[in-house]
Each structure stands twice: as structure tokens, then as C-alpha cells.
Design brief:
about 130 residues, mainly alpha, about 80% helix, elongated, DUF423 domain-containing protein, membrane
Length: about 130
């Protein structure tokens, strides 16, 4: 599987999960878990969707520049970051194990790294060839 195809597929999967988990949180969890955990669920779903779109953007850039290592690194950071950030919040909401919140900032740092890598990688990928 090409790198671009992988990231386009994973970005689309994140979009699917965003809609399905967002709907589950809004309809399936309402009244079953405390309001603060519902808010955490919503934050997790929002970040999943936003970074799913970022992963799609990485995939599209990789179609144009398949050998762009910073774009690939950004996509990995987004995937790891959203897994840790959103994943910990989803699990915390479902289990009420508040200690899972310790993991969330590590995901946030990975997401920040992804945005920085995407900015530099996009700048370099868009530079005219000599």
C-alpha cells in the first residue's frame, strides 16, 4: 500500500469514527454518565474529527510529494496523538477512571508536533524544484 493511500484511508476512518462516536456520545450516553464526562466525550470526538482531516491533508500532500518525510512524520504524530488524546478521553468517559487523564497531555504534545511538522513539511514540499 502506498503511503498516501494509507493516510487517506486512515483519515477517512477517523472521519467515520468521529460521526459514529459523536452520535453515540450524544444519544447513547446522555443521562448515563456525568455531564463532565459527556463534555470529555465531545472534546474527544471533536479532536478526532479535526485530526482526521489533518491526516487526510497529509495523504493528499503525499500524493503530490510521495518522498516528503516531514509530511509522513506529521501524519504519524497526528495518528499517535489522536489515539492518545481522544482515546484516553473516550476511555475515561466510559470507565470513569480519572487517572486516564494522565495520558491525554502526551497525546496533545504529539498533536502539536504533528502541526509543526506539517507546517514545515508543507513549506518544503511546496518549494519550487531547482
Amino acid at each position: 500500500m502506498t503511503t498516501a493511500r494509507l493516510w487517506l484511508t486512515l483519515g477517512a476512518a477517523c472521519g467515520f469514527l468521529t460521526v459514529s462516536l459523536g452520535a453515540f456520545g450524544a444519544h447513547g450516553l446522555k443521562g448515563r454518565i456525568p455531564a463532565d464526562l459527556i463534555a470529555n466525550w465531545g472534546t474527544a470526538a471533536n479532536y478526532l474529527g479535526m485530526h482526521g482531516a489533518a491526516i487526510l491533508a497529509c495523504g493528499l500532500l503525499l500524493l503530490l510529494r510521495p518522498q516528503a518525510p516531514l509530511i509522513r512524520a506529521a501524519a504519524w504524530c497526528f495518528l499517535i496523538g489522536v489515539s492518545l488524546f481522544s482515546g484516553s478521553l473516550f476511555l475515561m468517559a466510559l470507565t470513569d477512571v480519572r487517572m486516564l487523564g494522565i495520558v491525554t497531555p502526551f497525546g496533545g504534545v504529539a498533536l502539536l508536533a504533528g502541526w509543526a511538522l506539517l507546517a514545515v513539511g508543507a513549506w518544503r514540499a511546496a518549494a519550487p524544484a531547482n
